[in-house]
């Protein structure tokens, strides 16, 4: 961009960066601070780089004006709103432990600190942004995700209209954690009570508690380790929080979409399958392991071992299973439902272990024998179907003709593909009971104008249809429906 430059002007200059310097990639270090030594009328200039003093010639397209923005909390207050000034302001704040930066009213940039920062989210911080005045005072309060959530809450209260909060960013940017912080804070605002208030039925978790308890459950079944993020959401979600006229949470509803089905059978090298499988294999009791015929560890099953990543630093999968089970109880999943759920997960692990051999007589078709036959029998038993029927489903192809169905045997390769890419979705879906009915809209007792919507976007995943994927996707949908039943309208509390 051409600027009217003069000697002594502070500028940013774009310099090609070779490789990585001091741990910073070229993309992060391409703009360097400099001072103009001379300039012509066309905008080209000679500049002296700060630090080294090296004088270089720069074209107009490689120069941006630079101001003193060391204390800026809001990017719209930058003296010169350009790319290097924005990046520099964010980097300065990040280096000082300030991970949030405003971009006007109602928009905030959050940089993932990749380390716990409990002081940012303690009781004092929650209280600081609770009142309507504090939420709107951008000068008196430091930028914070709580401030954005509080602004949306009080605007909903004041205008009587629904509000939406969009959380978006690259994988590993912190969308999952930010969404949880927003939900926690809105639950705090909507459920705020004095110490002397009547809590009603103390034995039943509050709506706020049930909403928050749904998070670890969704993470266990919908999150996985990727090359960029150890806890990456592999689905998108839209969460509605419903409030009564007095401003208290009266219910919630979760919508999910684009679950990455392909991860179940083909996680990329160095990644992991969904967390729940590793939790199950690490935390199942000896009696449960025997009942579900599970291996001793994640290394014993193809679905959890094939990608080569069995454990995560700092993650205790066995402990996390206890957290997941607690969340199941909190949202109303009884012992029988939990047993059925873990049986289906175990069946999927066994189904992934099934392999196929060519027919010993050299003819068409394939055979399932040895350990593979035991895995298939275990899967069939846990799914509640006959081993012969399941074997036929994965080793044959049925064509419907005017003269009736024609059943053809599949070779070993085709049968293996059918195991992971079976087109008979109806057969796979029939292995699960119908999911609970979805709620058709906000509960009747909630004011539809008073809603907070939290949208977390995720990259689009593969959409291929196959038997294990269909089973897992239906299980995930069923789980979301059960959560929605638990966090739906609290008619007593409303």
From TrEMBL:
<keyword id="KW-0009">Actin-binding</keyword>
<dbReference type="GO" id="GO:0016459">
    <property type="term" value="C:myosin complex"/>
</dbReference>
<dbReference type="GO" id="GO:0051015">
    <property type="term" value="F:actin filament binding"/>
</dbReference>
<keyword id="KW-0518">Myosin</keyword>
<feature type="region of interest" description="Disordered">
    <location>
        <begin position="437"/>
        <end position="460"/>
    </location>
</feature>
<dbReference type="GO" id="GO:0005524">
    <property type="term" value="F:ATP binding"/>
</dbReference>
<keyword id="KW-0505">Motor protein</keyword>
<dbReference type="InterPro" id="IPR036961">
    <property type="entry name" value="Kinesin_motor_dom_sf"/>
</dbReference>
<dbReference type="GO" id="GO:0000146">
    <property type="term" value="F:microfilament motor activity"/>
</dbReference>
<dbReference type="InterPro" id="IPR027417">
    <property type="entry name" value="P-loop_NTPase"/>
</dbReference>
<dbReference type="GO" id="GO:0030048">
    <property type="term" value="P:actin filament-based movement"/>
</dbReference>
<dbReference type="GO" id="GO:0016020">
    <property type="term" value="C:membrane"/>
</dbReference>
<comment type="similarity">
    <text>Belongs to the TRAFAC class myosin-kinesin ATPase superfamily. Myosin family.</text>
</comment>
<dbReference type="InterPro" id="IPR001609">
    <property type="entry name" value="Myosin_head_motor_dom-like"/>
</dbReference>
<feature type="binding site">
    <location>
        <begin position="169"/>
        <end position="176"/>
    </location>
    <ligand>
        <name>ATP</name>
    </ligand>
</feature>
<keyword id="KW-0067">ATP-binding</keyword>
<keyword id="KW-0547">Nucleotide-binding</keyword>
<dbReference type="GO" id="GO:0007015">
    <property type="term" value="P:actin filament organization"/>
</dbReference>
<dbReference type="Pfam" id="PF00063">
    <property type="entry name" value="Myosin_head"/>
</dbReference>
<protein>
    <recommendedName>
        <fullName>Myosin motor domain-containing protein</fullName>
    </recommendedName>
</protein>
<feature type="domain" description="Myosin motor">
    <location>
        <begin position="70"/>
        <end position="494"/>
    </location>
</feature>
<dbReference type="GO" id="GO:0005737">
    <property type="term" value="C:cytoplasm"/>
</dbReference>
């Amino acid at each position: 961009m051409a600027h009217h430059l003069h000697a002594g002007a502070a500028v940013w200059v774009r310099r090609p960066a070779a490789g990585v310097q001091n741990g910073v990639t070229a993309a992060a270090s391409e703009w360097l601070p400099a001072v103009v030594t001379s300039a012509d009328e066309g905008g080209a200039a000679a500049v002296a780089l700060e630090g080294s003093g090296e004088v270089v010639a720069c074209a107009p397209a490689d120069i941006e004006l630079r101001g003193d923005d060391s204390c800026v909390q809001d990017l719209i207050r930058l003296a010169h709103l350009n790319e290097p000034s924005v990046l520099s302001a964010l980097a300065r704040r990040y280096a000082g432990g300030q991970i949030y930066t405003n971009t006007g009213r109602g928009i905030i940039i959050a940089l993932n600190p990749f380390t716990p920062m409990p002081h940012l989210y303690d009781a004092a911080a929650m209280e600081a942004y609770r009142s309507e005045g504090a939420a709107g005072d951008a000068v008196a309060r430091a930028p914070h995700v709580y401030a954005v959530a509080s602004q949306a809450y009080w605007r909903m209260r004041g205008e009587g209209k629904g509000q939406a909060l969009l959380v978006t960013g690259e994988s590993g940017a912190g969308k999952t954690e930010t969404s949880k912080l927003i939900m926690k804070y809105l639950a705090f605002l909507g459920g705020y009570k004095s110490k002397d208030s009547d809590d009603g039925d103390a034995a039943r978790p509050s709506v706020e508690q049930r909403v928050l308890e749904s998070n670890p459950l969704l993470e266990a079944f919908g999150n996985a380790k990727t090359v960029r993020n150890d806890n990456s959401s592999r689905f998108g979600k839209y969460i509605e929080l419903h409030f009564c006229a007095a401003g208290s949470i009266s219910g919630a509803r979760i919508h999910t979409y684009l679950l990455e089905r392909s991860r179940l059978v083909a996680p990329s090298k160095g990644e992991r399958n969904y967390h729940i499988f590793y939790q199950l294999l690490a935390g199942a009791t000896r009696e449960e392991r025997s009942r579900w015929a599970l291996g001793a560890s994640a290394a014993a099953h193809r679905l959890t071992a094939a990608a080569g990543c069995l454990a995560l630093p700092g993650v205790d999968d066995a402990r996390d299973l206890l957290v997941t089970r607690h969340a199941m109880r909190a949202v109303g999943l009884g012992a029988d439902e939990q047993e059925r759920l873990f049986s289906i997960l175990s069946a999927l692990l066994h189904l992934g272990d099934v392999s196929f051999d060519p027919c010993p007589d050299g003819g068409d078709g394939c055979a399932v024998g040895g350990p593979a036959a035991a895995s298939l029998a275990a899967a069939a038993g846990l799914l509640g179907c006959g081993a012969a029927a399941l074997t036929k489903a994965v080793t044959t192809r049925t064509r419907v003709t005017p003269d009736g169905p024609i059943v053809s045997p599949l070779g070993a390769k085709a049968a293996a593909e059918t195991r992971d890419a079976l087109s008979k979705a109806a057969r796979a879906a029939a292995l699960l009971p119908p999911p609970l009915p979805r709620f058709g809209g906000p509960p009747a007792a909630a004011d539809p104008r008073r809603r907070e919507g939290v949208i977390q976007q995720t990259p689009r995943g593969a959409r291929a249809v196959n038997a294990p994927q269909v089973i897992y996707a239906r299980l995930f949908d069923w789980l979301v429906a059960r959560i929605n039943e638990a966090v739906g309208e609290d008619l007593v509390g409303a």
